[in-house]
Every structure is written in C-alpha cells, then in structure tokens.
Amino acid sequence: MQNPQQWRYAENQCIDSTASNKWIAKTLELIGLRGDCAEDDGSSIRVGHSHEYLEMVEGKFYAATNALLCQIINPLDKIIVAYEKFTAHARARGFESYHQHISELNHWSNIAYLRWLSEVDQRSDLRYAL
C-alpha cells in the first residue's frame, strides 16, 4: 500500500476555523454523533497533509502541487470529516501541462483513508467519510 510520505506529503496539524467547527458540529449532530469533535477527550485527531516538495518516485519526476488536505479522524465514532480539501488537481487548474506531473496519490479520500488505517485496528469499520 502506498503512503503519503512516499509521495512527499508532509503531515501537519491543520488550523481550524470557527466556520469549519460549526459546520462539522452541525453535520455530526445530523447523523446522530457528538457534535463537538473534541480532541481533548482523545477520540478525535485533527490532521492535515500538504504537498510542498518535488519528488522522484520510481524514476519519474512529479511536481510540488501545494495541495492541502485537512480532516478530523475519529476512530471511536468511526468517521473522517474533511474540512479543507485543496487537491493537487484543484491547485493545477489552468495549467493543463501540469496535470501530467501530479503524483499518483492525489485524492483526499485515498490520503485520509491511509491515515485512518494508521490510527485504527485493521478490523475497525469506517462508518462515515464526510
């Protein structure tokens, strides 16, 4: 399985905004989960990945994209919530020749799921990805 570090995604803690917190809280409450998504109780992990580095993988060159992918992973409630998704393809809009140089690991869902797997028991089922 691929990993984000192989494709030069740096892991960081995304800064949350009041607007994203309200949206996340309301969304979680609508599906019957705790709306606070509090990290202080140990059930949620706020994590982001940014793609800021040039890379050479298996002899092929890939450009830095400045992608920014932020999510909250909550293994207890079995949920991943995205709150910032600036993908490699979105960042490359308007630069058609750039698309051929985007790394193969470039979708938020793939990166978030790989991070999910690093936090949970392999038998843990993911219930929601928002």
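Second entry:
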Amino acid sequence: MKQSLCIITSNTEVMPGVNLMWLEAPDAAAIAQPGQFITVCCGNLVLRRPFSIHQVDSTRVALLFAIKGKGTFWLSRRQVGEKIDVLGPLGRGFNIESSSRNLLLVAGGIGIAPLAFLVQRASLRHLIILIHGASAAKELYPSSSLPLTLRFSLPSGERKERNSPTPLPDSVQFVPVTEDGSVGRKGLVTDVLPDFLDWADRVYACGPISMYEVMSNMLLPAERNKLKMRKCQVSLEVRMGCGIGACYGCTITTRKGLKQVCRDGPVFELGDILWEEVVI
C-alpha cells in the first residue's frame, strides 16, 4: 500500500455515463492483483472514493467507473496531465486454485471493472467464459463478438493503443445478456448462469447485491449444489470510510464472524456472507 500523486494519461467517456481513466502509477501497477482496489481523494470531499483496478500495463493502472455522485463526477472532469491522490493497491483480491482450469466470470453492469483485470491475468492459463449483463447493448463491455458500434471508442486525437483497455482475448467466450434483448440473451445474468455451472471449476462474480442474493438462493438450497457454492468468489461493494480497516465503517456479518470489506475483502466466498444483513 502506497500513497502517490498519479498523473492522468487518459480520461474518456467510453460508455454512457462510464469513464475509462488511465493513471501513471508504476508502484501500484507492479504489485496489483485482480480484485484489489485503490482509493482516490476527490477534490474537497472528506472521504476518499474506492475504485476497482480495471487493468494494468507496465507502469499504469486503469479505472473503469460509473458517474453516480459528487466524487465520480469530479473524477470524470479531470484532464490529462493533472495529478490525483491515490492510495493502494488495497484489499484482498481473487484467488485461483492451481487445480482450476475452467473459470466462469459473472459481471452485472459496472461489475465488469475488476473482472476484466482477472481476464487479463488468467486467460493464458485458463479457459474463461465471461457473462456480462446490462440494461441495453450500449452498456455492454466491448468484445470482438459485438458489432463495431458497441466497442469502446476514443477521440481521434488520443493514442488508442495506449489509452484503450486491453481487449478481451479471442480465447474468452463472451456471453452478453441484456434486459431489453437488444444484444445476446434477454434477461439477467442469473437467468443464464445455470447453463454454465456444470462446466465451471470456479466462479467469480461482481455486481449488485440483488445479483448475489439470487445466486445464493439458487445455489444453497440443494445439497448437491453446495460444492459449487463453496467455489464461488464475489467482489463486494459497500460504503467505505477509510479504506484501510481503521474506521470499521464497512463491517459486514459473515459465517466466520465480523469482517471488514476493505481489509478482509473486497473478495469473499459467496456462501460465507449473510446477505440479509449486508447494508449498502
């Protein structure tokens, strides 16, 4: 964990209300693991804002974030060359067991942010199916399997090879799901999830609490499915105060006692969390 002033090398709206920002952060890029996050000091706001690490290259870290409040709006207005105060990498990331070969990734909306980093690190040694759900086609993560009009675009003056996200490898099977049926399967990611569970050695997910609750209810009741539940890791997003485990503001109740999302997570085993007690 290190606090640094990082130079913004790119900050572009790549989907409606979603920005991709690249930061020159060599120390963080060298040690970051999929599932970890950083916190950013956003203007005059008292609390730092947490952001999943979306991708890295040799010296830089990328953030993919939805503009939802004062902090993310402030961040979306920063210009290339400006410096922002960054702390991290923080938290515990995803764990891939050496025996796992088939990885099933499940992303709900902006939950694609940390999973793209997992794809970046794991695709050379593992088979990956990535399910991404969104309200409509324009909110889906770009993939070679999608029409050109639905892929990330950058202003013509920017260096695309450095500022674009690393594209999903062709070896990754991308399964788009849209609520309006405009692209891919119609419905929610939890509607298509059962089709791939028998294939997967390990499941990794990031999305809203409602998605996790459905996944939990889907997998827990039947005795034969409990093994699959133990093999599912999720990235949990809750309100954080300090981001380093000092304030206890992100404490949740698990079957193993009280845990802090910022220090013990944000990645947990799905079956360990008492979802009815999680407060966003």
